[in-house]
Specification:
alpha+beta, Beta-lactamase, Lipocalin, 21% helix, disordered C terminus, hydrolase activity
């Protein structure tokens, strides 16, 4: 595996370290870009697809998953700046056909995941439906997990709706709009994965992979995202492309695209947006990560067989971007952050491990069934007082509790405690009524019972 490196004396060069970490995590191919003070270091390693010999270059595009949302949000903010949209106008003014919630949802709450919408349906359920039908079915009152504007719950549905609003005011498909409003002005060659209205990509796109490091096995996987949800995750980008977006949030930014005052608005934490387990706060299309006195912003994108990351320090002038074509890219990112910190980049590690705190006795009243859209979380009590969590019936992981109703989960592979989530109490009744995992909020729908044999029933 050979790494190609473009160097700059003003920035740390991690070519050899990067290549070694990519090999350690079994990632077939990856890119790292670091930018500061008008200079960028780029490093590319490996192959587009495992054992094909086709090298990753600086121009190779990777499916960036949910980082697409930051591009969608930027397009929406350009339209706000141009006077085509208002952040606090009910979106029914732009899409009058919305039968429900059109007079309650605003662009601000959609961009900040405070619209109260559930995460999203199974891709197979919506693989062939239109965006208007999607909006009618899933942007409905019965699918709300919170009253609009009252709290944070990460939602792909919300960004489908943002894309729909963009289409309504521009008369273009979302793909055409984001390409003309954001990508081309930033010098990015558009590449989409199954987005309606998009031109076929003319650049090479890396295949995603499912990697088992214990077996030394890597298998290509194919994107499962429904075309209808393109605005939430259909872009393919290089690490250099992500740096281009990051520069919108440095200094004077890119005023021909978005004035600095408008870009700054995207970085301001929105009231009530508490994305426990994902970040420290959330702005308009950007997560906020606090590291001491520094507030980085950015987004993560974990798609089908890819793992990509963008971090921006608006005050210090840093932009860091990683693209990788394997599920193990998440572990690679953690190690890359350690190397960057050692090299003098003021960036912290991702919040994936349990904080060093003293465990508490599991609180009463947690066991039950919690629902976010089509996803079910079952919290069950085994003999004794230990509680376990299963997501959509996929095994039970033991929960360890700490203060403020927060908990960690035991990773079945490593046995380590990793960040899990938290429970929430109803302010009026003080009863536990919701569960937040990975930024997604699930409302309580039922209860579980313990059996003497140690089995679980809902």
């Amino acid at each position: 595996m050979v790494a190609s490196v473009t160097t700059s004396s003003a920035l740390p060069t991690l070519g050899h370290e990067f290549a070694a970490l990519v090999r350690r995590h079994g990632v077939p191919g990856a890119q790292l870009a670091i930018h500061r003070a008008g200079r960028t270091v780029t490093t590319e390693v490996g192959e587009l697809e495992y054992r094909t010999g086709q090298p990753v270059t600086a121009d190779t595009a990777f499916g960036i998953g949910s980082i697409t949302k930051s591009f969608t949000a930027t397009a929406a903010m350009v339209l706000v700046e141009d006077g085509d949209l208002e952040l606090d106008e009910a979106i029914g003014a732009y899409v009058p056909g919305m039968r429900e919630l059109g007079d309650e949802l605003t662009l601000r709450c959609l961009l900040s995941h405070t619209a109260g919408l559930s995460s999203g349906p199974d891709p197979d359920e919506v693989s062939t439906i239109s965006v208007p039908r999607y909006v009618t079915e899933y942007c409905s009152r019965r699918r709300l997990v919170l009253p609009p504007g009252t709290g944070f719950s990460y939602s792909n549905i919300g960004y489908v709706l943002v894309g729909y609003v963009i289409e309504a005011v521009t008369g273009m498909s979302w793909a055409q709009a984001v390409a003309s409003i954001v990508l081309r002005p930033l010098g990015i060659q558009p590449a989409f994965l199954g987005a309606p209205g998009a031109e076929p990509p003319t650049r090479r796109i890396a295949s995603g992979h499912s990697v088992n490091t214990a077996l030394g096995r890597a298998r290509p996987v194919f994107p499962l995202q429904a075309p209808t949800e393109a605005a939430a995750g259909a872009l393919a980008m290089s690490a250099t492309d992500l740096v281009a977006l990051g520069q919108v949030h440095l200094g004077a930014g890119v005023p021909e695209l978005l004035p600095a005052r408008c870009a700054e608005q995207m970085r301001v934490p929105v009231a009530g947006a508490e994305p426990y387990g994902l970040a420290d706060a959330w702005g308009l299309g950007l997560a906020v990560f606090r590291e001491g006195t520094t507030a980085w912003v950015g987004h993560d994108g974990n798609a089908d067989g890819t793992a990509c990351y963008l971090r921006i320090d608006p005050v210090g002038g840093w932009v860091v971007a990683l693209t990788s074509n394997a599920n193990t890219g998440a572990a690679l990112w953690k190690d890359i952050l350690g190397e960057l910190a050692r090299a003098g980049v003021p960036i912290g590690r991702p919040r994936v491990e349990a904080p060093m705190r003293i465990p508490t006795v599991p609180p009463t009243g947690c066991a039950g069934l919690y629902v976010n859209g089509d996803v079910e979380y079952v919290v069950a009590e085994k003999e004794g007082r230990d509680l376990y969590l299963a997501v959509d019936g996929d095994g039970f992981a033991r929960m360890t509790f700490y203060d403020h109703l927060t908990f960690t989960l035991q990773d079945p592979e490593s046995g380590r405690e990793v960040l899990g989530g938290r429970f929430l109490r109803n302010p009026a009744t003080k009863e536990i009524h919701a569960l937040q995992v990975g930024g997604r909020l699930a409302r309580r729908r039922g209860y579980t019972k313990r059996t003497n044999a140690g089995h679980f029933s809902a």
